[in-house]
Amino acid sequence: MRTLRALLALVAGSIVLSACSLIPTSAKPVAIDKNLLKPYGLLGRTIPGTNHGRVRFVGQPIYVVDAAGHLAPSNRIVTAPAGLTSVLDQLIIGPTKIEKFAGYASELPANLLILQATVKGKIGYIDLSESVTKQTRNKALLAIGQLVFTAYYAGATSGIEISVAGVLQRSPLPDRALLTLVTVKDCESLLEP
């Protein structure tokens, strides 16, 4: 008898809950009265619940690899002021679908994470989850170039130092040198001619 009651209670509960999903739909969008939104601050120019807080966006170049195997800039929208971390996050995402269709790619490893990225004294300090030099030499050079040029336009104008899980790395350069501080001048030959 107890199992029958439990079963009936379960059936009754499921019927009541299934009635909750009977929401009428409309074939066209329905306009919401602006007066209903005003108390929530959703139509204002500032962020609701802040002391006149605003979000501004800027275009920031990131560098991807074009179809010819050279580095080329591509614009991304980031919050202003553009910090090194937010710009590198866009670099990690890689080319857009349209850019991929046009032959653009990224030579950064697929599962790469930016653990930390800061600019101090115009030098960018980038801590990665894995080394970009585990790939072939050509791919590693392009990956380092992507980081150098992208960081340059995010404020690291004196170069970058790359570390992996906190351990400083020596980065290969096109002229076969290995340096800890890599500058834009070191990677100029990777740009499109």
Give your account of this protein's structure.
The mean pLDDT is 86. The strands form 3 sheets. Strands 3, 4, 5, 6 and 9 form a 5-stranded mixed sheet that branches. This protein has a two-stranded antiparallel ribbon with strand order 1-2. Strands 7-8 form a two-stranded antiparallel sheet. The chain contains 5 helices and 9 strands. 21% of the residues are buried. The protein is an alpha+beta fold and 193 residues long.
- Radius of gyration over C-alpha positions, nearest whole angstrom: 26 Å
What amount of the residues lies in strands?
15-25%
Q: Count the helices. How many?
A: 5
- Which geometry do the CA atoms define? elongated
Unreliable runs, pLDDT <50, ≥5 residues?
A: none
Class computed from helices, strands and strand pairing: alpha+beta
- Tell me the span between the first and last alpha carbons: 84 Å
What is the mean predicted local confidence, pLDDT? 86
How would a textbook summarize the main sheet?
5 strands, mixed
Reading the helices and strands in chain order gives HHEEHHEEHEEEEE
- Range of helix content: 25-40%
What is the total tally of β strands?
Answer: 9
